[in-house]
Amino acid sequence: MKTMKPIFQWKNIRLAAASVALSSAFASTAAELTIYAGAEADNIRYFSEVFSKAHPNIKLNWVRDSTGIIAARVLAEKDNPRADVLFAMAVTSMTNFADMGLFQPYTPKGMDALNPLYLNKATPANWVGVYGWASTMCFNTVEARRGSLPKPAKWTDLENPVYRGKVTMPHPASSGTGYLMVAAWIQMFGEEKAWAFMDKLHANIASYSHSGSKPCEQAASGEYVIGLSFPFRAARLKAQGAPIDIIMAEEGTGWEMQTAAIMKGTKNLEAAKTFMDWAVSRPAMEAYASRYEVTALPVTVKKPDHFPEVDSKLIKNDFAWAAKEQPRIIAEWRRRYDGKSEPRR
């Protein structure tokens, strides 16, 4: 197994550079935390800045990757954890980790004010939900006109053979965004109809990405016509001038809860508790709300231009079912569709 550096070397945006800058600014830090995180790199950078303003004596060393890859690291290191905290990890993964006894129980200050949907039922809590995100279709209008392609309105419209080789979506084993789509389709359509839908969708898929944001970026650049992704990334790309329509499917959309937890065995427990207290605070929620669809504590924050109406599209998501069934669903998905997955980096 490769030795992992405390600050990851990323390929898209250099978060390590931001972390180095923070390190130099707080050279006299009293504590450090290594945080494994599944959020997008630019969002982590922003959250880190907000936290450091409130707690300049704690240095945050981030290790960022897709949800599935971080989950695999946690499992590989379960007998010798290297992280102090897990952050921005899908609840479907965290529930399984909690059952394995990998977390240090802690109830953050202010947790009782959160939406009960985001709360772990254990006392003290094993993990806590902080924000959530949904799924959407990014549709390149220029490429669609060039190919005389219709604009989809529903998930099932993606079965149309005219989209053959023109659709990308996240891989559900490595991307939380990908898994929330698959789990939602099964809950909305029923198991048999959902797999039949995915069989037809697969015929039109060009590739499965290991990133939740990449499919929308591919659609925005014109590499493909349709990228299945999440609304905030789509709104940001559209605001930057990308010729995309942001489509919330008529049938409804799946969504996932992002959570945080302290790893059992951390040598920085007090600093980890401070981070968890911050993670459920109003300033943190306002930071999340500026980047994601829903938050555990309702806050009023101006959404970016082009952000679609999401709340009415969110399905009633059974997170416990999605967590329990994840290994089975992923195994079946791999059996059927893994042949079009992008190579892992």
Structure explained in plain terms:
It is a single chain. This protein is α/β, with parallel strands linked by helices and 345 residues long. It has two domains: 15-133 and 255-295, D-Maltodextrin-Binding Protein, domain 2 (3-Layer(aba) Sandwich), CATH 3.40.190.10; 136-253 and 315-340, Periplasmic binding protein-like II (D-Maltodextrin-Binding Protein, domain 2), CATH 3.40.190.10. The chain contains twelve helices and twelve strands. The strands form two sheets. Strands 1, 2, 3, 4, 5, 11 and 12 form a seven-stranded mixed sheet that branches. Helix 2 (41-54) links the parallel strand 1 (31-37) and strand 2. The longest helix has 19 residues, at 319-337. It is globular. Residues 1-28 have low confidence and may be disordered.
CATH topology (fold) name of the largest domain: D-Maltodextrin-Binding Protein, domain 2
H-E order = HEHEHEHEEEHEHHEHEHEEHHEH
What percentage of residues falls in helices of 4 or more residues?
25-40%
For the residues shown, what is the average pLDDT? 89
Strand content: 15-25%
Q: Give me the secondary-structure category.
A: alpha/beta
Query: Main beta sheet, described?
Result: 7 strands, mixed
For the record, the CATH class of the largest domain is Alpha Beta
CATH 4th-level superfamily of the largest domain = Periplasmic binding protein-like II
Count the beta strands.
12
How many DSSP helices? Answer: 12
